[in-house]
Amino acid sequence: xxxxxxxxxxxxxxxAAVPEVAVVMTMGALHxxxxxxxxxxxxxxxxxxxxxxxxxxxxxxxxxxxxxxRTLEADLEACRDEGVSVVFAPSRDEVYPGGPPxxxxxxxxxxxxxxGASRPGHFAGMLTVVEKLLLLTRADVAYFGxxxxxxxxxxxxxVQDLELDVEIAGVPTVREPDGLALSSRNRYLSAxxxxxxxxxxxxxxxxxxxxxxxxxxxxxQKILDDEPGVRLDYLAxxxxxxxxxxxxxxxxxxxxARVGSTRLIDNVPLQLTKGR
Length: 276
Ligand code: AMP
Known about the structure:
Largest sheet: 6 strands, parallel
Radius of gyration: 19 Å
CATH superfamily of the largest domain: HUPs
Number of domains: 2
Bound molecules: adenosine monophosphate
Oligomer: single chain
Number of helices: 9
CATH architecture of the largest domain: 3-Layer(aba) Sandwich
Distance between the termini: 57 Å
């Protein structure tokens, strides 16, 4: 039985006597990617909380906060299927009872690059709500997707720097058969745009198959340049923790682009080999 609750008081009551609380934070419009997170949580913990909250703080003024898909009934069904204990779907006032917060997280230098450069304030807003939801749910372990790789890195860093007593678990990206990373925003894509969007994961996959940094970027860039429906925001190669590119060993290839008016992001791991 999955309980749907809306208030922090109900949440406190539901989690009070629970020995280990596992949490999956979402903005709803749940898909197979979210469900994979729930399964990972369920595998380890008997008590799983899914939060559904479209956090206004992490949307820029010209972003899709108003039109972001809200599908609570279907979301609840998905959570029931996955054996989730509690769905916490709070109102804005429940999360921010004092109105828009004056004191928020500072995402630091890692929050200013890549997504942070394109979406000023996004990570401060994201970290602020994640920290709040970690406390409200009394999370012992929280699951996040590698799909949002910079988000995952920042949350890990916040937990480390602020010494929060919670374990953060990363879950690999779930993809469509043609490689497109599942995203709640994919439903904005027209049929033509959907075809163009496949170029993102194709570029990452073929780039990642190259052994050296230059070739990885060049191969990925060419695939993106050849797809007229894709307007590239960034293509970046970094170390595995988003730091400088290592000479060899694990690295990360990341992309963000607009397809029509929809902004999509994706990333993959890769192994760089020294010399050729
Ligand atoms: P969102 O609802 O988009 O805020 O995402 C909620 C959580 O689901 C985040 O931890 C995301 O990284 C994760 N997530 C979203 N899409 C995927 C995916 N395709 N595969 C794995 N995790 C995902």
